[in-house]
UniProtKB/TrEMBL annotation:
GO terms for molecular function: acyltransferase activity, transferring groups other than amino-acyl groups. It comes from the Bacteria. This is GNAT family N-acetyltransferase. It comes from Candidatus Magasanikbacteria bacterium CG_4_9_14_0_2_um_filter_42_11. Pfam families: Acetyltransf_1.
Amino acid sequence: MDIQSQEIQTKAIKYTMKENGEVIGRVSLFFITNDLHGEPYGLVEDVFVNDAYRGKGIGTMLLQHVIDEAKKQGCRKLLAQSRYGKNGVHLLYERLGFTDHGKNFRMDFVR
């Protein structure tokens, strides 16, 4: 038995919102494919809204762009991750139609 590797190209889109040249919010959408399905799925990463702009709809606008693009690109699902204790983000995701679907696991590599 041997393990063979094959590089898979991925696509991502980064949305940034600025005011007076300053980044006040951002989010990235990654498109991931695998051999199990013909359609990609979307992964939401790096959701950020500057503290001074929270509660003003910035996160909602950015995530709505991501949702619309994932649909446009034919994604079969869209995943968004969040840590425990980030209740505001959890409520935002739920308000936009995401459901709590379980846990994810992580392994950090110290550099």
